[in-house]
Specification:
Helix content is about 35%, strand content about 25%. By secondary structure, it is an alpha/beta fold.
Length: about 300
């Protein structure tokens, strides 16, 4: 179409209409979606193949600090938790080990992804005392006793069968102090004992080891069920020794001095007593120690 204006002729053309524009947009959008999905699936497939090289079956362990558990035992415990070295959390792996294996106090886990290796530095708990828990039954024939090995924090390391408990302790752990408690609720392996008498008994034993080590080596058992009349049984000294919770340090000190100065004389008096007696050594007071329960020798 032409128009004449001011002596000039201008060519005016009408743009051709685009037919089916909406249909073309839909097709273009669908193509982009299909292409994007194909890329995602391809990357996922490649990622799965790559991650499979870092699966638990291909991971090697480098362990240190483990004494009570072998490398195989730790690997078997991890086998139920460890899936992939790339995706697994070091913190979760550490928590799982401490929960699964009662002797493990701490586990520092480091991942070496390219080497497909886990480095685990283990800190283990040490057996410290043997815990005996008696049921509350009054009749001795109905009373049941259970034995547990605990560390210095009262964490239960293992349950020991009553039948062969003494054999296991003597063979594996040497001489350990016996802590006595009375309860119908037994502690759980891998958890801390929640009994006040056990905590008090552990405190006495740790204090003795720090301040009166010679006395600590003579302690056979501690019964702290009564905090104002804690009973200690000593090796080669058949006298019940009494302590109070509010005078532990002074009481242990007085007992150690008494044994050092008078143990031989007391044993002599016990042998000379023809009457059956139940002697006791009372160290519950701050500056006093009293030997009682012996019949007078005429």
């Amino acid at each position: 179409m032409r128009r004449k204006r001011d002596g000039y002729i201008r060519q005016i053309s009408m743009p051709a209409q685009r037919l089916g524009k909406r249909a073309n947009n839909k097709i273009y959008f669908l193509r982009r979606v299909v292409f994007a999905v194909a890329i995602v699936l391809t990357l996922a497939f490649i990622g799965k193949i790559v991650l499979s090289f870092f699966g638990a079956e291909y991971v090697s362990l480098e362990l240190s600090g483990n004494i009570y558990y072998t490398d195989v035992q730790i690997y078997d415990a991890l086998g139920k938790q460890l899936q992939n070295i790339v995706t697994d959390s070091e913190e979760q792996t550490s928590i799982y080990l401490k929960k699964k294996l009662s002797y493990i106090k701490d586990a520092h886990v480091t991942k070496h992804v390219m080497k497909r290796m886990l480095t685990i530095e283990i800190t283990e708990r040490e057996p410290f005392a043997l815990l005996r828990v008696d049921s509350t039954a009054k009749a001795s024939i109905d009373r049941k006793s259970s034995f547990f090995l605990v560390d210095s924090e009262g964490h239960v390391l293992k349950h020991i069968d009553k039948g062969d408990g003494n054999l296991q302790i003597s063979d594996q752990f040497g001489e350990v102090v016996l802590l006595r408690a009375v309860s119908d609720e037994l502690p759980k392996v891998g958890a801390a004992v929640r009994m006040s008498e056990v905590a008090l008994g552990l405190e006495i034993l740790k204090t003795a080891l720090l301040q009166e080590r010679n006395l600590a080596t003579q302690i056979e058992s501690i019964d702290a069920s009564d905090s104002q009349k804690i009973k200690l049984q000593l090796d080669t000294f058949p006298v019940s020794v009494w302590l109070a919770a509010d005078a532990i340090e002074s009481g242990l000190h007085h007992i150690a001095l008494f044994l050092q100065q008078h143990k031989t004389q007391v044993l002599q008096r016990i042998r000379e007593n023809s009457v059956e007696t139940q002697p006791y050594l009372d160290a519950r007071f701050q500056d006093t120690i009293y030997l009682g329960g012996l019949a007078k020798i005429e």
